[in-house]
Specification:
PmbA/TldD fold, alpha+beta, seven-stranded antiparallel β-sheet
Length: about 450
C-alpha cells in the first residue's frame, strides 16, 4: 500500500483500512419503481500513532497521499493518548464471506424481486403504501499496519428494507421489516412479507390498554429496547471508566437463569459474518451473559490496553444494526449479537397472558438514562393481549423500566429466533411488571 508506506515514513506507526466496492441500490416509492443506481466506492482510512497520540483521516482519492498523511499527523497533535500498538500479522480462521450468486445479480433481478414483494402485499391489501429498498453490494476490504499486519476479505451482501403504511380514518399505521443475506440462500423475502401481513391483521382493530404494570412480550425486533441500554453497560470503556452498573460484576449472577447473550461475529449463517474486526483483531465467540452470569465485556484495542484486558474483536466502524463506513474511526460495538432461545412458541407465550402488551417497534431507541439501564419509549407498533389473544393495536402508549431490574426477574424466551438487521439473532422475550403509560 502506497499510503501505508508514505505514512510509515512520517509517523511513528500507521494503519490503513481500504475498501473498494460496488452496489446496486433499487428504490420503490409508493409501490412504484423510483430509482436504480450503480454506485462505486473507493476509500481509505488512515490511523497514525505519533508522539504517543492517535491521529485519523480519510480519503476517496488514492493519489492524495501526502495530504491525507499530513492531516492525520495534524489531528494527532490534538488526539487522545494511544495506549496500544497497531497489531502485527495474525492467524485467522478461514471464513467465506463471498457469494458469486449475489455478485452476479443484475438490477433487473432486484427490480423483479421488489415487484414480487409489493404484489404480494397488495394482494393482501391494495390500499397499502409500500416503500421498498433492495440493495446488492460487493466489497473488498483490506487492513494493513506498519507493524506487519496484512489481512483482507471479499464480502457480498443482499438487503431488503420495507416501510409499510396503512392509512386509517384517524391515523397512519407505519412499520418496518427487513432481510439481510451474505449468501443468496440466506436471503429470505417471504418471512418479512409474512410478518408484515400478520402485523396488518393484528392492527385491523384499534384498542387501548390503561396505564399500569403489565407483562410485556418483546418481539425479536422489540428486544432492541433492552439491548441498547444493556450494551452500554457491557461496553468495556464504560466499565473501565466506572460509569457502567456492570463494574465489578464479572462472575456474578446478575440476571435471570434463562438469559444467555453472546457476541459471535464469525457465527456460521450470520448475514454479516466476518473473521476480523476493523482493527485487525480475530473475531471469536464472546459470551457476555451465560445462564444469568456475567462472563465478559466488549473491548477494542485502546480500551483493552487501558483496562489490562485482551481485545475481544469489537473494534468496529458501525453500530449494532449499522454497517461499516470507512470514514468513521473504529469504536466498541458488537459484531453479531445472539440471544439463546427458550422452549415456548410465540403463540404459547401469548396464551398465558390475561392482560398485557406485545411490543414490536418503538420511537427513538436509546431514550432515557441509558448508562443506568433506564429506558422510556413511545411505542409505534404494539398490540394489546387480553385473555391469551391479541385483540388489536394500541397507540399513544409508552413503556418504561430499568433493564437490569427487569432482566433479573422471571423471564420467558421464545423458541423461534429471527435475524434483525443482520447483526442480531434473537427470539421473542417476555418480561413481567413493565410500566405501561397510556397518554390521555
Amino acid at each position: 500500500m502506497k499510503l501505508l508506506e508514505t505514512a510509515g515514513k512520517k509517523a511513528d506507526s500507521a494503519e490503513v483500512y481500504e475498501v473498494k466496492g460496488n452496489s446496486i441500490p433499487v428504490k420503490f416509492s409508493s409501490g412504484e419503481l423510483e430509482s436504480v443506481k450503480h454506485v462505486e466506492t473507493t476509500g481509505a482510512a488512515l490511523r497514525v500513532i505519533d508522539g504517543g497520540k492517535l491521529g485519523f483521516s480519510t480519503t476517496t482519492d488514492p493519489e492524495n497521499l501526502t495530504e491525507v498523511v499530513d492531516h492525520a499527523l495534524e489531528t494527532a497533535n490534538f488526539g487522545e493518548e494511544a495506549d496500544f500498538e497497531f497489531p502485527g500479522q495474525i492467524d485467522l480462521e478461514e471464513v467465506n464471506t463471498f457469494d458469486r450468486e449475489i455478485a452476479e445479480l443484475e438490477a433487473n433481478d432486484l427490480i423483479k424481486q421488489g415487484e414480487e414483494v409489493i404484489e404480494r402485499l397488495h394482494q393482501f391489501d391494495s390500499d397499502l403504501e409500500v416503500n421498498l429498498d433492495l440493495s446488492k453490494s460487493v466489497s473488498q476490504t483490506s487492513l494493513a499496519s506498519s507493524n506487519g499486519l496484512e489481512v483482507d476479505g471479499d464480502r457480498t451482501k443482499l438487503s431488503l428494507s420495507l416501510e409499510i403504511k396503512k392509512v386509517g380514518n384517524e391515523d397512519i399505521f407505519t412499520f418496518h421489516e427487513s432481510s439481510v443475506g451474505q449468501k443468496l440462500d440466506q436471503f429470505d423475502v417471504e418471512k418479512p412479507t409474512e410478518r408484515a401481513i400478520q402485523k396488518l391483521k393484528w392492527a385491523e382493530r384499534e384498542t387501548r390498554l390503561e396505564s399500569g404494570s403489565y407483562p410485556v412480550i418483546l418481539t425479536p425486533r422489540g428486544t432492541l429496547v433492552l439491548l441498547v441500554p444493556l450494551l452500554a453497560g457491557f461496553n468495556g470503556k464504560h466499565v473501565f471508566q466506572g460509569t457502567s452498573p456492570m463494574e465489578g460484576s464479572l462472575g456474578e449472577k446478575a440476571f435471570a437463569e434463562e438469559l444467555t447473550i453472546s457476541d459471535y461475529g464469525s457465527m456460521k449463517g450470520s448475514p454479516t459474518r466476518r473473521s476480523f474486526d476493523d482493527e485487525g483483531t480475530p473475531i471469536e465467540k464472546v459470551d457476555l451473559i451465560s445462564r444469568g452470569e456475567v462472563k465478559n465485556f466488549l473491548y477494542d484495542l485502546q480500551t483493552a490496553s487501558r483496562a489490562g484486558k485482551e481485545p475481544t474483536g469489537n473494534g468496529l466502524k458501525g453500530g449494532l444494526l449499522g454497517g461499516s463506513d470507512f470514514r468513521s474511526a473504529p469504536g466498541i460495538s458488537p459484531t453479531t449479537l445472539t440471544i439463546a432461545s427458550g422452549e415456548k412458541k410465540f403463540g404459547e407465550m401469548i396464551s398465558d397472558i390475561d392482560r398485557g402488551l406485545v411490543v414490536d417497534q418503538v420511537l427513538g431507541l436509546g431514550q432515557g438514562n441509558v448508562l443506568s439501564g433506564e429506558f422510556s419509549n413511545n411505542v409505534s407498533v404494539a398490540y394489546k393481549v387480553e385473555d391469551g389473544a391479541i385483540t388489536g393495536k394500541v397507540k399513544d402508549t409508552m413503556i418504561a423500566g430499568n433493564v437490569y431490574k427487569l432482566l433479573k426477574q422471571n423471564l420467558e424466551l421464545g423458541k423461534e429466533a429471527e435475524w434483525v438487521g443482520g447483526g442480531l439473532f434473537a427470539p421473542a422475550l417476555r418480561l413481567d411488571d413493565v410500566n405501561v403509560v397510556r397518554k390521555s
